[in-house]
From TrEMBL:
Active-site positions on this chain: 154 (nucleophile), 318, 351
Molecular function GO terms recorded: homoserine O-acetyltransferase activity; homoserine O-succinyltransferase activity
EC number(s) stated in the UniProt entry for this protein: 2.3.1.46
Pathway: Amino-acid biosynthesis; L-methionine biosynthesis via de novo pathway; O-succinyl-L-homoserine from L-homoserine: step 1/1
Name of this chain's protein: Homoserine O-succinyltransferase
Main location: cytoplasm
Class of the enzyme per the UniProt entry, highest EC level: transferase
Length: 380
């Protein structure tokens, strides 16, 4: 089938959990909801399930459209669907909006059952470990005891890695794409600047801006603009925008360059769609993730119990999650004699390359995923 074959019209579902969830911080969520979507059909022995973990601003809406009028499909539609690299004729694919999100799962913008008001600043800090634990609860509810694969890019790749640590017997394959075992100091610094832009916005109100009927739009806009600079490579920005001017030079501080126009557009668009409190929590989860911390910084020890087979994939122009960081994961897995394939893809898009329909990249994913056996006693 064609790469352009869409999954078609899809609809989100909501799973409710009434059993308390203790978070890594020690906070307890008495109950919570997770919004998710599924694509394809779960087979008889439930051996063909694939979980997709989203990145910083991702959602459960991975593929397909909600109506024929939808302008854009799900964020990884180029990867997921009939005949695509993650083939829904073979796999049952699950996309989840993480805890703390702003697209239907329990988070700062959702209603706190204890107060009947939005959680706001009271919603606890969530971590990669918390997300994986809540995702495991969802799989329990769906009756899925083991995943054929867990896949994620960037922050999603950290979740895929954490799945193999926290639930080694529940994952057969892990695809860790454009990711890292922890953030560098520079990445933590970028996240802090983004958070400060939000927190110091006069409309932030300590995170309880819902009660004031306002949104810290300026701060969120700046945070997203900063993020976009780091997601693209210098070459990609140069090729797309260069030093092109919008018009004749005006000698002022309004938009003069095409690059400025693009950043402002992306910032405005994001500020109209995303919740600032969620952005703060997602970046903090990135900062905190470090599975080697409990093992004296030894990543090999942290990964010593994993049973999954791995595909680790990086992109040459990604300077935010550089190939060297992926190779740290590969080395730690090889230290444990794990089965791991590694690919470093030549691509100009920077960190965003994991979202692009690059032919070489997709061919690697297609080949790896086509070799995963499902059904009967042959699942491996």
């Amino acid at each position: 089938m064609s790469e352009n074959n869409s999954i078609g019209i899809v609809a989100p579902q909501t799973a409710h959990f009434s059993e308390p969830l203790t978070l890594k911080s020690g906070a307890v969520l008495a109950q919570f909801n997770l919004v998710y979507e599924t694509y394809g059909t779960l087979n008889a022995d439930k051996s063909n399930a694939v979980l997709i973990c989203h990145a910083l601003s991702g959602t459960h809406h991975v593929a397909g459209k909600y109506s024929e009028q939808d302008k854009y499909p799900g964020w990884w539609d180029n990867l997921v669907g009939p005949g695509k690299p993650l083939d829904t004729n073979k796999f049952f694919v699950i996309g989840v909006n993480n805890l703390g999100g702003c697209h239907g799962s329990s988070g700062p913008v959702s209603i706190n059952p204890a107060t009947d008001k939005p959680w706001g600043s009271a919603f606890p800090i969530v971590t990669v470990e918390d997300w994986v634990n809540s995702q495991a609860r969802l799989l329990d509810q769906l009756g899925i005891t083991q995943l054929a694969a867990v896949i994620g890019g960037s922050l999603g790749g950290m979740q895929a890695l954490q799945w193999t640590i926290a639930y080694p017997d529940r994952v057969r394959h892990a695809l860790v794409i454009a990711s890292a075992p922890n953030l560098t100091a520079q990445n933590i610094a970028f996240n802090e600047v983004a958070r400060q832009a939000i927190i110091t916005d006069p409309e932030f109100h300590g995170g309880d801006y819902y009660e004031h009927g306002v949104v810290p739009r300026r701060g969120l806009r700046i945070a997203r603009m900063l993020g976009h600079i780091t997601y693209l490579s210098d070459d990609a920005m140069g090729e797309k925008f260069g030093r092109k001017l919008k018009d004749d030079i005006k000698y002022g501080f309004n938009v003069e360059f095409e690059m400025e126009s693009y950043l402002r557009y992306q910032g405005d668009k994001f500020a109209g769609e995303f919740d600032a409190n969620t952005y703060l929590r997602m970046t903090r989860a990135l900062d905190y993730y470090d599975p080697a911390l409990a093992y004296g910084g030894d990543l090999s020890k942290a990964l010593s119990q994993t049973q999954a087979k791995f595909l680790v994939l990086s992109f040459t122009s990604d300077w935010r999650f550089s190939p060297a960081r992926s190779r740290e994961i590969v080395k730690a897995l090889l230290d444990n004699e794990s089965t791991v394939s590694y690919a470093e893809v030549t691509a100009a898009h920077g960190h965003d390359a994991f979202l692009m329909p690059d032919k070489h990249y997709h061919a690697i994913l297609r080949t790896y995923l086509s070799n995963i056996e499902v059904g009967g006693n042959h699942a491996k």
